């Protein structure tokens, strides 16, 4: 499981006739691959909720999204598992199939709700438009298989 986390001043995701938006917080793009389990979900939810990338009064990145009473915008993104090794057209064979990804996405949302951090989502599998003002900019990539 892979996430791209972007610290934001504000963000939104639009699909169909729906727009979900947040103020200060995190945009979390979530991709899933074969072999991902509840263990990957637990690891990432814990890491995201406690990641200290917001500035304290001394301008040091020392506060989490929970510490600042921020929000999370969670967006599924299978393209995080694109392979560009061969040719110029990305291959998405490393992305988990639709049904299993959707199941893990729902479980991820359940675990995220247990953190008491307010969050909004896109629509799994939909064509979405994401807009954000990246704060910093701060962008962090975490892969649950590469725990260092």
What does it look like?
The chain is α/β, with parallel strands linked by helices and 148 residues long. The protein has one domain (2-143): 3-Layer(bba) Sandwich (D-tyrosyl-trna(Tyr) Deacylase, Chain: A). 20% of the residues lie in helices and 38% in strands. It has two helices and eight strands. The protein has helices at 38-50, 98-113, and strands at residues 2-15, 18-22, 25-31, 54-55, 61-63, 71-76, 118-121, 129-143. Strands 1, 2, 3, 6, 7 and 8 form a six-stranded mixed β-sheet that branches. The chain has a two-stranded antiparallel ribbon with strand order 4-5. The radius of gyration is 15 Å and the shape is globular. 30% of the residues are buried. The model has no long low-confidence stretch (mean pLDDT 96).
Tell me the layout of helices and strands.
Elements lengths: L1 E14 L2 E5 L2 E7 L6 H13 L3 E2 L5 E3 L7 E6 L21 H16 L4 E4 L7 E15 L5
Parallel strand pairs: 3-6, 6-7
Antiparallel strand pairs: 1-2, 1-3, 1-8, 4-5
């Amino acid at each position: 499981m892979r996430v791209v986390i972007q610290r934001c001043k504000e963000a939104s995701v639009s699909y169909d006739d729906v727009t979900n938006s947040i103020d200060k917080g995190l945009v979390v793009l979530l991709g899933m691959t074969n072999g991902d389990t509840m263990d990957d979900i637990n690891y990432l939810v814990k890491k995201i909720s406690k990641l200290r990338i917001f500035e304290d009064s001394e301008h040091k990145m020392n506060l989490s999204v929970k510490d600042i009473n921020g929000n999370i915008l969670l967006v599924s993104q299978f393209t995080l598992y694109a392979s560009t090794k061969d040719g110029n057209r990305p291959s998405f064979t490393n992305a988990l199939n639709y049904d299993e990804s959707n199941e893990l996405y729902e479980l991820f949302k359940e675990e995220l709700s247990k953190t008491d951090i307010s969050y909004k989502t896109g629509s799994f599998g939909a064509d979405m438009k994401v807009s954000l003002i990246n704060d910093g900019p701060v962008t962090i990539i975490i892969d649950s298989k590469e725990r260092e």
